[in-house]
Design goal:
Blueprint lengths: L7 E3 L1 E3 L2 E3 L2 E7 L2 E11 L4 H17 L3 H17 L1 H12 L3 H20 L7 E3 L6 E9 L2 E6 L6 H12 L3 E6 L4 H11 L8 E3 L4 H10 L5 E5 L2 H14 L2 E5 L4 E5 L5 H13 L9 E7 L3 H13 L3 E2 L14 H17 L1 E5 L3 E2 L10 E4 L6 H4 L6 E7 L2 H8 L4 E2 L1 E5 L3 H10 L4 E4 L15 E2 L11 H5 L1 E9 L3
Parallel strand pairs: 1-5, 8-9, 8-11, 9-10, 11-12, 13-14, 13-21, 14-19, 15-17, 18-19, 21-22
Antiparallel strand pairs: 2-3, 4-5, 6-7, 7-24, 16-18, 20-23
Length: 483
């Protein structure tokens, strides 16, 4: 199956103008012999130009009414929807996410833009009682200024938009550095939005994290930073921003758990585990990478997982029937296979997909579930970020919660049970920012707060109304009237 028929040229954009630079060829992870695109990488010197363009644009943008800003976001949503198939195909070709998933992600981008567009017509502050009856006192949200946005490759449309949309509606301008593995999709989004955006409002820089990313962090005259990526990089970003007194939010790693109790509906449970663990080839921070099961139900659960995982369809990104595609890159492929090699030496295979359905060489990895290690083993503690999960046994409900919380991370957690009392106990006792009952660990809706506890987050929240708190500051105003 040929994934793409033309080579796309991807450029950084500053003040509405494309920026030339050193060219890098991108090959299709579904078919390593097929060239998808060429992106042009800027140097760190582009950061200052982008920030200055953003500052100029921000002054005019912030002066618009909320309704005017909302109308622009609504136009962005329309443009994205008009180009949804082309964007989804290009993104799937660039980073290997199955086309069905990618179409859903683009649709979510449309929803996010429309959701935040509507914020332009909602209340922006509160009237506050004052001791003096001649004083009128109120609060309002005001823009931060220029926001740096650093995004990963695994959700190349949704994550940038769920940062950019609330930042814009709050009156900010953007300097956006996408991951290089998603640079092509980022460039296409900029192409689509250019007709409806004021020049300089969003400036997008294709470049390395060590050069462009660090320059933005360490030298860029920005007022805030929103980052999604690895814990190591996120901690560096947080420390750098804190040292410069720049407002920041970081969304980082996860080692998410699916707890299965002895009264769970196992057919429903297995379906949710497969989706949570293996869609996007497990390359998402909310993936179910640990499965903790009550010992009474473990034998039956193992058999059901073995049967279900064996028949998963691993195929090319544009294969409409594929449950998962290849992983995104050679680096990802090699890193995940190191964990798989360790698992096959030190653990027992519970379930593994039988075949890969493709005529081409690609970065394909067969989904794998293993057991036979304790909850402190490397495989049960480190984020693999691939189609891999460990199965751990618990004596009872209390031990299941103890194992579930036995991680440095705290992003998402699920429990599968028909017991209402134990469901509520889990929701209260789980050390995770997002907790769910009879639902997979992934899939939080765009209108709900997204974020984690412990080492998964800097303790702010994205999406929903919570995002507005990050992308604005509160100003308290008071005026004394003479009457």
């Amino acid at each position: 199956m040929s994934v793409t028929s033309q080579v796309y040229e991807a450029y950084s954009v500053i003040n509405g103008n494309q920026q030339d630079g050193e060219a890098t060829t991108i090959y299709n992870p579904s078919n390593l012999s097929e060239q998808v695109a060429v992106y042009h990488e800027v140097s760190s010197s582009a950061v200052e130009e982008a920030v200055q363009a953003a500052k100029r644009a921000q002054r005019e943008w912030a002066a618009l009414s909320g309704l005017q800003k909302g109308a622009t976001l609504e136009n962005m949503a329309t443009k994205l929807e008009e180009n949804k198939d082309e964007i989804a195909t290009l993104a799937s070709s660039e980073m290997g996410k199955p086309i069905k998933e990618m179409k859903g992600e683009v649709a979510r981008g449309v929803q996010l833009l429309r959701y935040y567009a509507a914020e332009g017509s909602r209340s922006n502050g509160n009237v506050i009682p004052a001791a003096n009856p001649q004083v009128h006192q109120y609060s309002k949200r005001v823009p931060l200024g220029v926001v740096g946005v650093i995004t990963p490759w695994n959700f190349p449309v949704a994550i940038p938009i769920w940062k950019i949309a609330p930042a814009l509606i709050c009156g900010n301008a953007i300097v956006w550095k996408p991951a290089k593995q998603a640079a092509v999709t980022a460039s296409k989004l900029m192409d689509v939005f250019q007709d409806v955006l004021p020049s300089g409002l969003i400036n997008m820089l294709i470049g390395s994290g060590s050069k462009v990313g660090n320059t933005l962090l360490e030298e860029g005259n920005i007022d805030a930073l929103s980052f999604t990526g690895s814990t190591e990089t996120g901690m560096h970003a947080a420390a750098t921003c804190a040292s410069r007194n720049i407002k920041y939010q970081t969304e980082m790693g996860g080692k998410n758990v699916a707890v299965v109790l002895d009264d769970a509906d196992l057919d429903q449970t297995v379906s949710a585990i497969l989706s949570g663990s293996f869609t996007s080839a497990g390359q998402k921070c909310t993936a179910s990478s640990r499965i903790v099961a009550d010992k009474k139900i473990m034998p039956t659960l193992k058999e059901k997982l073995k049967t279900a995982v064996a028949d998963l369809r691993v195929g090319e990104a544009l294969d409409e029937q594929a449950f998962l595609g290849p992983v995104s890159s050679k680096d990802q492929y090699e890193k995940i296979n190191e964990y798989i090699s360790l698992a096959k030496k030190e653990a027992n295979v519970v379930a593994e997909t039988k075949t890969i359905v493709s005529d081409y060489e690609g970065h394909y990895i067969r989904p794998l579930i293993v057991d036979g290690m304790d909850a402190n083993h490397t495989l049960a503690q480190e984020e693999v970020f691939g189609p891999f999960a460990v199965l751990l046994e618990a004596e009872d409900f209390d031990e299941a919660i103890e194992i579930a919380n036995n991680t440095d991370y705290g992003l998402s957690a699920s429990i599968f049970t028909n017991d209402l009392s134990r469901s509520h106990q889990f929701l209260e006792r789980s050390e995770a920012g997002m907790v769910r009952v009879n639902l997979e660990t992934a899939g939080v809706e765009y209108q709900a707060p997204f974020g984690g506890m412990k080492m998964s987050s800097s303790h702010t929240r994205e999406q929903g109304q919570a995002a507005l708190e990050f992308y604005s500051e509160t100003k308290t105003c008071a005026i004394r009237h003479s009457f």
